[in-house]
Every structure is written in structure tokens, then in C-alpha cells.
Amino acid sequence: MKTISRRQFLRTSTTVAASMIVPARLFGKNAPSNRITMGCIGVGGMGMRDLRAAMVNSDVQIVAACDPVSASNEYGHWFKDGWQGPWFGRDSAKKVVEHYYAQQTGRDDFKGCATCIDYRELLARGDIDAVTNVTPDHWHAPITIAAARAGKDIYCEKPLSLTLAEGRAMVEAVRRHGRILQTGTHRRSSPVARFMCELVRNGRIGKLRKATVEIGTAPGREGPKEPWEEQPVPAWLDYDMWLGPAQWAPYHKLRCLYSFRYINDYSGGEVTNTGAHMLDLVQWASGHDTTGPVEVEDLGGAFHPEAFFNMANPAHFRFRYADGVEGELHSSLRGWCVKLEGDKGWIAFQDRLTASDPKLLSEKIGTEEIHLYDSSDHMRNFLDCVKSRREPAAPVEVGHRSTSICHLGNIVMTLKTKLAWDPAAECFTGPNAETANRFRHRAYRGSWTV
Length: 450
Description:
- The protein is α/β, with parallel strands linked by helices.
- It has helices at residues 6-17, 45-55, 90-105, 119-123, 137-149, 164-176, 191-201, 239-243, 270-286, 378-388, 396-415, 433-437, and strands spanning 36-41, 60-66, 114-116, 130-133, 153-156, 181-183, 208-215, 295-298, 316-320, 326-331, 337-342, 345-349, 353-355, 418-422, 427-429.
């Protein structure tokens, strides 16, 4: 592990601080005490999107960008909005931020965004209030826990964790240090998704019986064919830092950037990608935000342990809550969808809402009925909660519980079995519990730890 001395930090931060503060007049009533200074850790595809979502708020100033990638265009499908690339990486983020503030201040020579490879350098800065954590999944827990200890509020992308044990450790760290954490399950800030969940919670489809979640099948994500060969590490990547706590593996371009999510060492496949969003809506609609299922069963999910992309594809598992509500997740060529079925009808959300009775979609939620958390902008909600110290739309416990179902599904599909789960103790019970409980944890490489 690389270390940073206090003297080194003070020398660096003192040098850059003077040039990194946007004039107070830019922020009007928001300056200076109400301004949120932010550092962005991970500025690839979604990371750059979250950076921009924060930056356009007048009470925010981005002062640092951290990423083991200096600058690259190799992020697959992510947007390229006319900026003269490379579009992603810490140096690209610096250009985007400084260009934006130059336009806002009228200073063509504005310099105000530091860059670093090691997130600990960013967290050591005393002038940063909040951070975005938009890294591969295997980095979410170490960075989030370190940020909480450093007194920073955190916007952490989904899935919240890589393992069940990491998720619980993140909850405890955020609570212990009194931090605000927003999980990037942004459909919690979708008025359409909220309306669907309110209809279900208020009995418009009768008693909820079943939830069906469809996720993508990741077509074309088979990875390089065997035997695949190690490739030279590109000059724009600090590969050892990218791996961090994950086990060492020879570099291949498909191991990093977007396709990391199909490799077990770094992510949970499509189950923790689109599945994290859809299962979060099941939790919200069914009223299980702070708990989880009591039973999980494999229904034929196909892992490919010898393949380069070795996560379940297709995925298929079932889960059941203590109140009898059942859920099922499976891969589908049509992409993501969640369907909620009650004893009086059903409602589904894909690109839009559909229902067994179209009249349901024009219903009004009465003033005395259940109204769920009201947010229409996920990043703005996080920023408001940083100021007010109110819980955000997708707080750490909610993010952990939704992500836990993803992990439970991957575990039962790996073991090809049915398992009992205790959501209070967060452990497997009954037959095969000893074997299954080993999957709650992962070993970290070298001296990395949370």
C-alpha cells in the first residue's frame, strides 16, 4: 500500500488550495459557508456523469478528481457529448471541471481541480465535504468506509458492495461517523417508480403476491476466447491501483473499464448491475426496505467459472419474504423490467408503467394514504441532505438491503441450491449454511483492508 505523510499532504494541499476556490460572487447566496466542496473518486463513464450532475449545482464546487486512469476513450457505450476527448479519466475530468468554471467565472485561465491516483490523497484534504465513489464494485467498501472515517459524506454508486459482509461494514461505518450516504439506485428519485410503489403500498392491486424482475442477458459479453493472452498495461492506467484489494490477475483490456462487472473478482454480473435497480424497487414497493427475504433458491442460473466473463448469464433465482411475498429474477432479451402482482391485478415498470387495468395509472394517492420519500433528482437530493443532515432517498441501509438480494441470488446460483436466510442476523441457517456463509466474505490482496 502506498502511504501519504502528513507533511506531504500539507505541502500539496497548501500549494493548490489558493488556486482552487471559485470566487464567492459566483455562488451568490450559496457562498461561502453553504457551498459543498466535492472530490470525485472514479471518473469513468458513470463517474463523469455523476461529476457533471453535481457540478451544475450552484452551491457545489468540484475541487479534485481521482482515478487510476489518466485519460481514455475506451469506455464502450458511454456518452461523448462534443467535448474534445479523451472523455474519461482524472485528467479529462480536470479539463471538464476547469472549462465549466472558466465559463462561469469568465476567467479563461481558471485552474481549480487537483488530480490524484490514490483516493487516500483526496480523502486527506480537510477542505472536501463530500465525495462521489463511482469505482468498480470491489472498491466501493474500502473507499466508502475510509471516506466516512475521514468525515466525508458519500454518493456511492450501485451496487453498494461486493459482498454481504462489506455492505454491513459500510452501514456501520456511515452510522458510526454520522455521515450521509446516497446509494446510486436513482430510480428512488423517479416520480414514475415512486407512483408505482405507492399504488402497491396502498393496496391498489390488492395484497402483493409476487414480484418478477427481468434483467439483461449481457449479449456479446462472453469475453476473449481461450487461450487468452496477457496484454501490456497501457500508459494511461495504474493497473496495480485499479486492482487494489482484488486478487492479482494479468492485464487484459476487457478486465477493466465497463466490462469489469462480468468478472467475479470485481462485481456480481448483470445481477448486481440492472438487478440492483430492479430489486430495489421490489424492496420499496413491498415495504421491506430494512430487511430481506428468508429463503432463496436457484432456478437454473448458469455460471461459467472457466470463462473470462464468469458471472451468471443467464441468471435465474427465486426469493421469498417472511410475509409470503415471493420474488423471481431472470435474464431476458428485452432488458430490465419489474412486474408486481397482487390478488386484484398487476402493475409493471419498464420504459413506462403498464397495468392490468389502465385506469389504475390515473389513480390519485390520497392525503391520508401512504406517501413514499419524494425526490425527483438523485444528486440534488444528496446535496440537500448533506446540508440538512436528513436521510436521503436511498440511504446506506436501504442500499445494503437491496444489494444483499443480489448477493444472495449469486450465492445460491453458485451452489445450485436452496438456502434459508436470517435477515436480522444476516447469515444463512439450516442445511448447507456453513458452506454458504463462507461466501459472505472475500479475502483482500496484500495489506488492503476495510
